[in-house]
Design a protein that fits this description.
- With 121 residues, this protein is an all-alpha fold.
- It has two domains: 75 residues; 45 residues.
- Helices cover 79% and strands 0% of the residues.
- Helix 2 crosses helix 3.
- The protein is elongated and about 75 Å long.
């Protein structure tokens, strides 16, 4: 059972009118994924543009999209490799990227602001 949600959606029927909810679920899944990828690509390009003090983020969008596409192709060759990543490496990586780095940045910001405040006095 590779995708449990998709397996469950295949059995849904709405009378005689709509009995192929799996096609609708795939369309919604794909549209949602495209919106998700677009927002992350926008955030990445805008963040890099601000970090490098560029006037606009637009020149970064196409190269970052190409890098994202190539990275997605090279990341996992097959489903077994992707599954191995999710169950072995993803949890520590997610804790690092989702908790440790943001908390570290907040602490650094607080320390920086306190030092700046003490220098003014």
């Amino acid at each position: 059972m590779a995708f449990p949600t998709f397996t469950e959606v295949r059995y849904i029927e709405a009378g005689e009118v709509i009995n192929r909810f799996d096609a609708i679920a795939i369309i919604l899944w794909t549209v949602g994924l495209m919106i998700h990828i677009s927002l992350f690509l926008y955030g990445l390009s805008l963040g890099l543009a601000q970090a490098f003090r560029l006037d606009t983020y637009r020149p970064l969008v196409i190269p970052l999209a190409w890098l994202t596409g190539f990275g997605a192709i090279l990341f996992a060759v097959n489903y077994a490799e992707l599954n191995e990543f999710f169950f072995e490496s993803y949890v520590p990586l997610n804790i690092l990227m989702g908790a440790i780095i943001p908390v570290g940045l907040i602490v650094a910001l607080i320390v920086f602001r306190r030092n700046k405040k003490h220098k003014r006095e």
